[in-house]
Amino acid sequence: MKELYQIHKKEKFNRLVMFTVIGGCLIFTAVVCIYAMMVLKEGKKNIYVMYNDSNLVRAHSTDINNSQDILMKKSIENLNQLLYQQFPNVDNVNGQLKRAVAISDNSVNGAINQLKNNNFYQNILSQGMYSLLLKDTIMIDYARKPASFEYRGKLKISKNELSVLRQIKTTGTIEYTGIVNNVSDGYIIRNFNIVEDKPIDQK
Question: How many domains does the structure of the chain reveal?
Fold first, then answer.
C-alpha cells in the first residue's frame, strides 16, 4: 500500500510539473504574440527612404499621404543633388549625371547642358572645386496631375578656404511610375527646369 501511495504521489507531482510547464509555455507564447503585434503596428508607422543610394533613413509616418510626401521630396532633392553637388572627379561627375538622367525625362538633359554652357562642371574639375547643395524648401502642388514642385536651395562652392553661395530654384513635375530599371523609388521627374541660378551677395 505504501508503494502504491508513493507512485500515486509521484504521478500527481509529475502532472503538476507538466501542467506548470504547459501553462508557462502558453503564457510565454501569448506574450511573444502580443509583443510582435505591437512591433508590427509600430513598424507600419515608419518608412525607409534611400539616401545617397546607400543609406536607409527611417521616417515616421502617420498616414500614406505623409509617406508619399516624404518619398517625393526625397526624389526631388536627390535629383538636384545629383546635378549640383559635385567634387573634382570626372568619373563621379559623369556617374551622377548618368543617374540623374535615369530618374527623369529628357528635360534634365537641357538642365545639364545649361550647367555645362555655364562651365559649372568644367570649373569643378579644372579648378579643384567642391560644391554642396543646401536645401531650403521643397513645395509640391498635389492639386495638379502630375504633381508639380518647386525646389529652393543654396549652392555652396568651395576651394581651399574660400566659398561662394548661389541661389538655386528648380521646378518640374513628379509622378509615380513603379519601380523599374534605375528608378529605385518608383518616382520619375519630368519637365525639369532651372529657373534661378544666381550668386548671393555676401556682405
Answer: 1
Q: Roughly how many angstroms between the first and final C-alpha of the chain, as a whole number?
A: 107
- Single pTM value for the model: 0.69
State whether residue 67 is helix, strand or coil: helix
What SS3 state is found at 87?
A: coil
CB 18 within 8 A of CB 24: no
Residue 11: band (very low, low, confident or very high) from pLDDT cuts 50, 70, 90: low
Structural domain containing residue 94: 75-199
- 174 within some domain: yes
* Nearest-5° Cα angle at 146, 140 to 151: 30
Compute φ and ψ for 126, nearest 5 degrees.
Answer: -80, -30
Domain-embedded: residue 44: no
* Residue 6 cell numbers, joined: 508513493
pLDDT tier at 170, thresholds 50, 70, 90: very high
Distance CA 120, CA 133 (A): 14
Residue 30: inside a domain? no
